[in-house]
Amino acid sequence: MKFRISKEAFLDGLQKVQHVVSTRTTLPILSNVLLVASNGRLQFTTTDLDVGITGSVEAQIEREGATTLPAKRLVNIVRELPASEVEVSVDAKNVASIQSGPSFFKIIGLSQDEFPPLPDFGGAKEFRIPQIVLRDGLRKTSYAISTDETRYVLNGIFTSFREGKLTLVATDGRRLAMIENDLEFPASHETDVIIPTKAVQELQRLLGEAGDVLVRLSDSQISFTVGESLLVSKLIEGNYPNYRQVIPGDSTERVPLNREAMLETVRRVSLLSSDKSNSVKLVFGENQIEVTANSPDVGEARESMDVAYTGKAMQIAFNPDFLKAPLQNLDAETVYLDLIDEMSPGVIRIDGSFLYVLMPMRVTGG
Q: What domain of life (predicted)?
């Protein structure tokens, strides 16, 4: 196989697929990217057997063919090439010669026959979701995915297609983020799946603002077609906990907050929370909140904010990172903090179908 390609297009194609490549693999082929040159395009595919991704870019194909080359090494070479045009030729033994201006590289690859094929989605359920809706939904929920591998069903986003709605939920047991959007699909397509973290991360890299993403679902796999790119992933098997149980009932207090101002205040005050007492306390008084952090071994910080609050005096403590996460990933100007009492979860909402449940922390006096 032989082709010419611009350095920018080559690098762009490689970078879209390189994150899937596992650095710790016992199968050498999984460290490689599959390159297929045909019909004026160069196609790139990588997989770790759980997640696979394919994309393509334009190239001048002089001799069609396919090979696999070490992905990370190829990215490093292409990134450093001195000229904007690259010529690549691969011989029958999968040895690739790369020429760019005065630079020449030879890399040893493996046959494409060893590369595991991506799954087939014939007869799968299909959904079309506006890219911007899915991108926005993942941004507002994915930070709450659990990283605790002992509770593997929580290591992904619960995705529900039911009653004309797409619902996305992520939780790690101490907080929960959820968003719902209306979506048209046949009643026969109703289903719930759990999309693993790695696929969520790759999908977020692919999604843009225009056009739809085509989602295909088989019994144990999911695929996303975004423009020229295809992402496939195994689904997490198992039963997701009943998340609706943890959403508190009616709150006694609703506090409107300026999202940016609250984020900045919590960020500053939490500089003096310590590993031992990783919490910030919100003390509510008439028309103000005082945000405090107090660590016996570090010191204390305190900052007050004017808010519309006329309820009873109360205080509640939260993990500052968990409190900042939704504030960083939402774009609404105003968020609402719904509270019941000092021991019940707080709920952050916006004008829309998003909510974030946050468990309070027990804090000793002071």
A: Bacteria
DSSP-assigned letters across all residues of 41-110: EEEEEEE-SSEEEEEEEE-EEEE-EEEEEEHHHHHHHHHH-SSSEEEEEE-TT-EEEEEETTEEEEEE-B
b/e for 92-131, b at 16 or more Cβ within 10 A? eebebebbbeeeebebebbebeebeebbebeebbebebbb
**Burial environment of residue 315 by CB neighbours within 10 A (0 to 12, 13 to 18, 19 or more):** middle
- pTM reported for the whole predicted model: 0.92
Give SS3 for 27.
coil
**What confidence category does residue 364 fall into, taking pLDDT thresholds of 50, 70 and 90?**
low
Q: How confident is the model at residue 23 (pLDDT cuts 50, 70, 90)?
A: confident
Burial of 80 (0-12, 13-18, 19+ CB in 10 A): exposed
pLDDT tens-digit series, residues 167-217: 999 999 999 999 999 999 999 999 999 999 999 999 999 999 999 999 999
Contact 78, 7 (CB under 8 A): yes
Q: State the CB neighbour count (10 A cutoff) for residue 91.
A: 13
Residue 245 DSSP class: G
DSSP string, 276-321: TT--EEEEEETTEEEEEEEETTTEEEEEEEE----S--EEEEE-HH
